[in-house]
Amino acid sequence: MASTRKSLPPLKKRSQRNGSADAVFRAFSDRTRLRILHLLRQGELCVNDLLQVIDVPQPTASRHLAYLRRVGMVAARKHGQWVYYSLAPARSSFHRKLLDCLVSCFDEVPEIRQDTARAARVLHSGGCCNPLARS
Prior knowledge:
The protein has helices at residues 21-28, 31-40, 47-54, 58-70, 93-104, 110-124; strands spanning 45-46, 74-79, 82-87.
């Protein structure tokens, strides 16, 4: 039986790493990655809070977060047992414009509206990660 698991396109060429246009557009071409980027606009989140909001299996979220890190869209920091993710600072006007697009272009995606409401509830409850570690 063939596997139904979708795999992410490999980043083989150096030009496809660290924010090249084609790799960044691929990052924006996946709904789960869009949801993650949109949530991180609001600030740093730990991986468990992200999982709670987007409601996907942990391996799926990890694959998407790894892709976003490879293309330079997301930064990660580890504090104790928690990993916190945030949007990486824009390194070019192209990168900045794409991040600006997150503000206005994706309000029509139903999951993003639902994620925003779920994120507010998660953060209001204090989230699952140690709030003292957030900076």
